[in-house]
Amino acid sequence: MFRPSDLFDLAQTDHPGLFDGVTHAWEALQRIGAYLEKKITASRAEAPSSIQQSHPGAIIGPDVLIGDGSEVEPGAMIKGPALIGRNCRIRHNAYIRENVIIGNDCVVGNASELKNAWMFNGAQAPHYNYIGDSILGFGAHLGAGVKISNLRLLPGNVLVVSGKMKWDTGLRKMGALVGDRAEVGCNAVLNPGSILGRGSLVYPNVFWRGVLPANGIAKNKAEVLVASRESSSS
What we know:
The chain is mainly beta. It contains 3 helices and 26 strands.
């Protein structure tokens, strides 16, 4: 249930080799750094980049490659190493840190921060999002203010928990695996070790931890009390 093909369409990324020999999809997270180093070194040897001149007003590190048609708005910072695909929008005040892979047709929005993360084609983190040590599948979408927490408060590795079953990821830091076309509502929090199946939906303001199956829905049960306002005397 945690194989890469269970969660992601591998035809919707230019980097499926990251999953070669992988049993659980989260294992790819610890490979991103070495993979980027190899890819960027090879690309530099073939065609040195002048990306800094192509995106005035943005701060872009030397180990960053950006695909054709992608726009990096003024005020964005891409520290790198990072690979950004074609026709992406990296908006004002976005902060892309170390070891990030962004596919084609993606959006990283204002005040969104990524670290050791991988976005498949068409994934979107458009408003005030934090994505740490996580993978977002094809067409996955985070609502405004969604945070993916990647470090458990207690010592030890991050665990993936489903009912009475537990899997030790072997990772001190792991956020979430968000399957293809999953939707996460505004201000929701995905706690360390979260798995969202394909087409699943997390409602706004939900604090989620665990495994949400494909096409599953997670929502709060809290009721909203509606009362009448007392009119004030004049």
